[in-house]
């Protein structure tokens, strides 16, 4: 597949890094110094303005299958998509930073600008955070195959019954599988004899029913009572999170917003959310509003330092789960090291969203976890493949088949389950092993 990336910033680089392994990728950026960071990737770099038809032609847009416009300027992204749609027929992804541009979703906007998908990173971030909040105790949560398969990440706390026991001894419910463990900074694929430890982060794949049972065993946060959620920051992300939580009607939500005018606007749009005017980094305010009793504190101020400060105050007050927005990618791991449960990036969420939708020939990237240390791939088993059981396979180390999708039927497999032609596999692998996994399953026909 031929893919053109407009913009060589953090988003453009992350998308290029993920796609250049299997696809022909070209990158357009006007800054000469940007080219240096792409030298290690197998991409064509074209220097110039993305609003120039000549530059787009040099980047091969006329032959491109996909164009992703992700510069920091909304207008440049829109114009680049419009020109590309006239030079060729690529599927276009347009990144925007302002809510008013979401009107491009309507038919008139699509016809006028040739945009197939508008990507608003803040909206994707809000959706990701809301999905995590709704699973008690979760550090990450994803759904695949139209919700038939879920992936949830947990930290094993002192109340959990799992630490000190091997995977084989856990007897997890049928339909669930631990596919990865992060211990410190290392991510590995566990086997039956692997023993879990306190403070491990485990990634579990399974059916929704099975994962409900797993949640009850992993964390004391599971239960029927409504969660209490405090959101610090009533900007675009905070508003969308509160709106999504109100629609689900499973939580009691409070939003703390420092701007009185913005607070009035929030009160006009939210019906069941308590709006407080004040500084989310004011310890006296947090104490007076009993924020420490919250099940989840979400800090989504558009400033890393203030988010970190508000989150640490919440931790000091006793909040069980802290979710914090991080703008600078370099701060993600730092925030976790100082005690933040979930550090999330709007840019990272948007990149993952786009990668989900750019289809490969036989393999697709469904999700990136642990800041890129893990990959979840979807792979097609070709016609002519001779059926065999999982235990008879010899896939690369640091990979595990998490699910088999056969038509409308989903199997969370054990060793005796068989793979056959036409199946789709959901495979978890580490970043380092992803290439080997792709090649292994691309050649399964010849291995028969």
Describe this structure in words.
This protein is an alpha/beta fold and 448 residues long. The protein has 3 domains: 2-119, 3-Layer(aba) Sandwich (Rossmann fold); 227-349, NAD(P)-binding Rossmann-like Domain (Rossmann fold); 350-447, 2-Layer Sandwich (Alpha-Beta Plaits). Helix content is 31%, strand content 28%. It is built from 15 helices and 24 strands. The strands form 5 sheets. It has a 6-stranded parallel beta sheet with strand order 3-2-1-4-5-6, with helices on both faces. The chain starts with a strand and ends with a helix. The mean pLDDT is 88.
Main attributes of the structure:
alpha/beta, Rossmann fold, Alpha-Beta Plaits, six-stranded parallel beta sheet, 28% strand
Overview in brief:
The protein has three domains: 2-119, NAD(P)-binding Rossmann-like Domain (Rossmann fold), CATH 3.40.50; 227-349, Rossmann fold (3-Layer(aba) Sandwich); 350-447, Regulator of K+ conductance, C-terminal domain (Alpha-Beta Plaits), CATH 3.30.70. The protein contains 15 helices and 24 strands.
CATH architecture of the largest domain: 3-Layer(aba) Sandwich
Instruction: Identify the strand order in the major beta sheet.
Output: 3-2-1-4-5-6
- What is the first-to-last residue Cα distance? 27 Å
Q: Taking Cα atoms only, what radius of gyration do you get, to the nearest Å?
A: 23 Å
Assign a percent range to the helix content: 25-40%
In CATH terms, the superfamily of the largest domain is NAD(P)-binding Rossmann-like Domain
- The low-confidence runs, each spanning 5 or more residues with pLDDT under 50, are none
CATH fold type of the largest domain: Rossmann fold
Q: Averaging pLDDT over every residue, what do you get?
A: 88
Q: Quickly count the helices.
A: 15
- Secondary structure tally: strands: 24
How much of the polypeptide forms β-strand, as a percent range?
25-35%
CATH class (first level) name of the largest domain: Alpha Beta
Compute the number of structural domains: 3
Outline type: globular
Structural category: alpha/beta
């Amino acid at each position: 597949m031929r893919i053109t990336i407009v913009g060589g910033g953090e988003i453009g680089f992350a998308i290029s890094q993920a796609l250049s392994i299997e696809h022909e990728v070209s990158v357009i950026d006007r800054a000469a110094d940007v080219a240096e960071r792409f030298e290690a990737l197998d991409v064509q770099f074209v220097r110039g303005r993305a609003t120039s038809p000549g530059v787009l032609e040099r980047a091969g847009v006329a032959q491109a299958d996909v164009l992703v416009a992700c510069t920091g300027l909304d207008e440049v992204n829109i114009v680049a998509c419009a020109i590309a749609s006239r030079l060729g027929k690529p599927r276009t992804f347009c990144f925007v930073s302002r809510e008013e541009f979401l009107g491009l979703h309507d038919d008139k906007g699509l016809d006028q600008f040739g945009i197939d998908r508008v990507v608003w990173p803040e909206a994707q971030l809000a959706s990701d955070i809301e999905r995590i909040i709704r699973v008690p105790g979760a550090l990450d949560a994803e759904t695949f195959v139209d919700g038939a398969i879920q992936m949830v990440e947990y930290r094993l706390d002192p109340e959990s019954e799992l630490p000190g026991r091997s995977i084989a001894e856990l007897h997890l419910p049928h339909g669930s599988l631990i596919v990865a463990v992060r211990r410190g900074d290392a991510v590995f694929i566990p086997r039956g004899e692997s023993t879990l430890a306190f403070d491990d982060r485990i990634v579990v794949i399974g059916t929704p029913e099975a994962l409900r049972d797993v949640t009850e065993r992993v964390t004391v946060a599971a239960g029927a009572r409504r969660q209490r959620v405090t959101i610090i920051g009533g900007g675009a992300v905070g508003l969308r999170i509160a709106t999504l939580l109100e629609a689900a009607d499973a939580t009691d939500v409070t939003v703390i917003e420092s701007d009185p005018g913005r607070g009035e606007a929030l009160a006009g749009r939210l019906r069941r959310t308590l709006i407080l005017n004040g500084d989310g980094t004011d310890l006296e305010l947090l104490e007076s509003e009993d924020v420490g009793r919250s099940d989840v504190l979400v800090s989504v101020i558009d400033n890393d330092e203030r988010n970190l400060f508000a989150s640490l105050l919440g931790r000091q007050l006793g909040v069980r789960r802290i979710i914090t927005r991080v703008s600078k990618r370099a701060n993600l791991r730092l925030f976790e090291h100082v005690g933040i449960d979930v550090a999330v990036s709007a840019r990272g969420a948007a990149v993952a969203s786009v990668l989900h939708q750019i289809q490969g020939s036989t393999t697709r990237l469904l999700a990136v976890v642990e800041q890129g240390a893990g990959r979840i791939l979807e792979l097609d088993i070709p016609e002519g493949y001779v059926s065999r059981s999982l235990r008879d396979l010899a896939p690369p180390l640091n990979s595990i088949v998490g699910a088999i999708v056969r038509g409308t039927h989903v199997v969370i497999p054990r060793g005796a389950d068989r793979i056959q032609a036409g199946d789709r596999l959901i495979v978890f692998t580490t970043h380092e092993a992803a290439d080997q996994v792709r090649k292994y399953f691309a050649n399964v026909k010849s291995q028969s």
